[in-house]
Amino acid sequence: MFYHYSSEGNLRDVYSNHRSLVNVYYGITQDPITRDIIFIMPYYNSDLTHYITKDFYNISWYHKKLYLQDIINGLAKIHDANIIHRDLHSGNILLNDYRAKICDLGTSKSATESTDYEEEIYGIIPYVAPEVLQGKKYTKASDIYSFGMIMWEIIVGRRPFWDRNHNTELIIEICDGLRPPIITNAPEDYIDLMKECWHSDPEKRPTAVEVLKKIEEIWRIDTIIGGYSKTKIIKSPKIGPVTTNNPDAIYKSRHLSVMIKSAASARISRSQPIALDLDRLDYRQRNFNDKRKFEDNQFGNSFDNGTSNKKIKPIEDENNVYATKEFEFDIDINSRQSKDDGYITREIDFDIL
């Protein structure tokens, strides 16, 4: 795998030309006993996940924007080479001397290699775009969704959905529009950009270049008004690192295809009864109305003809469910004109079977 990607032209160009934004590897070796593969790379002080957890309250707004600018700039270079990262999350962002670099491009592929539907999906559920969780292909917009989650993590100090089980139920809710709660711990334009990045429709997410320009604009405006020094972390129980995550919140990249198929089946089974009930209800109502019109006409004609009819009448119970019962009418019509009142009376005998 390492040889395949390191020899792939576009990805090799990313490593060669953008060393300040994308982590480089010096070599590869293997443990003779465990047979584990070992990559040789520069030393970094931390990754973004541990840095935020350890030092959240001491990270200035200035440095948060600096990290984000490095990340999105690196992602823009990757996308410019027509490469999709496919597993972007805070654990894959390395930090050193207040600069951030994107690493772990092992699952990356050329955008032209992706088929309409992915055979194997790999990642961390909260960072995976909803369309990918529905089995559709990775795109550059999928990486932008992941970046939106990193934006949220940086301003809140917690990993997205840290308090939830990372299971099929969470996948279903994300596909249905669930996102982390919006915390007003950043300028409004920052919040708006973050929400654009995690939009449910990938076509409505900005490109990496557009995100970079917007972050630079936010930085420029804040620098003019001195906002980066005035922006302070709001003291709130909803902000800041937590001691422990939910034990079933899994922040290690893993194969998700089986869970995604299970979630898709669950969504279908939940949606079908609702659709069927609505269709049946509409059919019942229309059918009942038609029957009522037919029966009323036939019932009136029986009086005029003086005949005995067998009817099937719809009966509505307390749950608005319509059943049918058969009635046999032996109708004896004795019509006589009232001398005093001027109206006709009809005597009707019912023998109900």
Automatic annotation (TrEMBL):
GO biological process, one term: signal transduction
SUPFAM superfamilies: Protein kinase-like (PK-like)
Domain of life the protein comes from: Eukaryota
PROSITE patterns reported in the protein's UniProt record: PROTEIN_KINASE_DOM
InterPro entries: Kinase-like_dom_sf, Prot_kinase_dom, Ser_Thr_protein_kinase
Coiled-coil boundaries: none
Gene3D superfamilies from the UniProt entry: Transferase(Phosphotransferase) domain 1 (1.10.510.10)
Annotated GO MF terms: ATP binding; protein kinase activity
Pfam families, sorted: Pkinase (PF00069)
GO CC, alphabetical: cytoplasm
Domain Protein kinase, chain residue ranges per copy: 1-220
Protein name in the entry: Kinase-like domain-containing protein
Organism: Rhizophagus irregularis (strain DAOM 181602 / DAOM 197198 / MUCL 43194) (Arbuscular mycorrhizal fungus)
Classification of source organism: Eukaryota, Fungi, Fungi incertae sedis, Mucoromycota, Glomeromycotina
